[in-house]
Amino acid sequence: MSTSSDMRAIIVGGKEVGHHAAQQLSDRGHDVVIIEKDPTRVEFLSDQYNATVIQGDGGRRSILQQAGLDRSNIIAALTDYGAMTNVGICTMAKQIQPDIGTVARIDHGNVDEYDGLVDEVVYPERLAGNAAVNEIMHVAGAGVQTVSEVTEDLTLVEFTVSTDAPVADRELQEVSFPRGALVVAGRDDNQLPGPEMVLRPESRYVVAVRADISDEVVRLFRG
Prior knowledge:
Blueprint: E1 8-12, H1 16-27, E2 31-36, H2 39-48, E3 52-55, H3 61-66, E4 74-77, H4 83-96, E5 101-105, E6 120-122, H5 124-139, H6 147-150, E7 154-160, E8 170-171, E9 181-186, E10 198-199, E11 204-210, H7 214-222
């Protein structure tokens, strides 16, 4: 599964979540195809979005094949038809293309319930609720301020170090990170970073990174 600038992604569901995800991926230079059922929404996306938009049911094998599933690295089922629909789309895609990465939007339950069914899940309603609480606390003068409030360009990203990555088995002080990237924590052992912290293969690290250099940081961690 590729995470570099040549990544090709299929987004099933062109409503707000899918639309914004596709736009951000496209802005980062990735090749994105959107599948959407609603003809009115398809027309809107075609006018707003400079990429391939397919009208159809993303749960149908023929539509996934039309979208170029065999040439894609990842499929994200982000429809608003519920978790089971999105997990089902990912399951079918995996049956057709076993090595494709899968992401499913959920709308209820614990994310751990979906372990083994898809590679990752997203829960937009919970994220929106968390953001709303942060804003409420901030406006109320509680002194709470999230990273996204400090700067919209900075994102916290979790990376898993590949065995052949440039940073693998190297100390932080030995790695030349681009300006705008900072390792803030070791995810597996809750280790705070220091210059002698070793970036171990298959271990996870949280990095604060500017959006415009994210692909460069991905290459350091993933190769």
